[in-house]
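Entry for the shared binder. Reason: the reviewer on the internal report wants the predicted structure included alongside the sequence.
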Amino acid sequence: MPLPKLPTRPAAILDLNDTELDLLPPTAQTAKGKPANVHKTNPIAPVLRTNDVIQDEGVAGQRSSFKLPTTTTPAAVPAIAPSKAIVTKKSPAPRSPTRRATKAESGVSKLFVLDTNVLLHDPSSLFRFEEHDVFLPMMTLEELDHQKKGMSEVARNARQVSRSLDTLVAEHRQLDEGLPLSGLGHKDAVGRLFFQTTAMSGTLPPDLPMGKADNQILSVVRALQDAHPSREVVLVSKDINMRLKARALSMSAEDYFNDQVLEDSDLLYTGMLELPENFWNKHGKGVESWQQGGTTFYRINGPLCHQFMVNQFVYFEGSMPLYAQVREVNGKTAVLATLRDFTHGKNNVWGVTARNREQNFAMNLLMNPECDFVSLLGQAGTGKTLMTLAAGLAQVLETKRYSEIIMTRVTVPVGEDIGFLPGTEEEKMQPWMGALEDNLEVLNMGDADGGGNEWGRTTTLDLIRSKIKIKSLNFMRGRTFLNKYLIIDEAQNLTPKQMKTLITRAGPGTKVICLGNIAQIDTPYLTEGSSGLTFVVDRFKGWPHAGSVTLQRGERSRLADYAGEVL
């Protein structure tokens, strides 16, 4: 019998895919037919991407009519050299969930010109461009000066940017050479910051009025392009019209998108995982089980265990159904705990029972004293507020686990603003808490046949309202809540910074619940990817004392369910 032919390639790389090939030394890559110095990178992976968020004049403020002196001599443009860190740039780190700027194909770092609204939107945006350089026109500084007065979020951001710039400039006399952005401890920012130190003017169409601030910034971008033709100059602005004008004038323009947590809302952590049909075949061998405190625990082994998150709910609806919560993950081993069945009437919470699988998952989180943070997402009518209030009343009035319920929400109107409201803090917040009153009425209806004692229901409602406090977000700074049940309603309208301010108010024994629907964002500058609710769901996943559930099915009425699908 003849011997088989010898392989034409080394056996070590016969069956390697492209991902494994990149891990081989250069000599092995050459043996497979690839050049040794070729690395698989994406040459066009910008930090920013186009996002249709319209510029709000109330946020960005009125543009100043300050006009720079004009000159057409190229000598007036300061020389901007690429950052030295580009030559000694380390190998790229694993890609983060947010998009970040990368080096151009030519190996020269980009130059990003920032519009004022970017700094007002994110005060730390100066340090978000990694090895690339940042340029601030004089008009951007002029507009920052106009926005620094007041107590609004925009004014605070303007003052924070001014303080950062002052600290960077304090130790450097020569601004023409640029300031290292890593001077304030931002190690990822290895580029340099350049200011407009001389008058700059590029050639723009004569019908564009140069007295407008937008056009003056565009003129600076054109001047930088003319002075550095071998380098990519990119305008970064949150104003759609500003970006459209820049592209119409053959300038590179991008939206600031570095604050986005996820690029696609479909990738958001749901808190649940449906197990495959062959789950027991691959994970049923060597299962250990024990009971503790009325809960049954299972220790399983298998390839799917490393995908589990702590406090994630897993379910299998087959011949051997399983509804459990992940309590521990260690490599290919996981510990699952059975759930309490809140769909049964004997386990009702303040008269409320779960109507579907997701509501049962949510009830297990809300009634778990070891879970300090809970986020419930879902469209209108899925029962988020009703279940949260029922669990809160049961733990405040029955088990005395918490002293009182505190409820707050961001006051963003859907239609036109109706003006100032009279009264105290709670009286001003009362019109925004219609959902609270509706759900309290449901929880206090009494007997289903209407035969309950009217006097008793009124007394109970007064007791309930005495344990519920309505607070405004405007007065949350500096407070500490001890042993409270804090409900943040309509959390999708909060920015990540506001969400951090609220959650850090929690003291010992406090439970925080965030409710919202990321498909109904009313705040002008927020999207599904940059909402504070998306931010906390992504950051808290896997923490042993936090849990999240996305409710799928509406339970309000058949009319509300159908309207949510077709409208």
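Summary line for the report: The radius of gyration is 29 Å.
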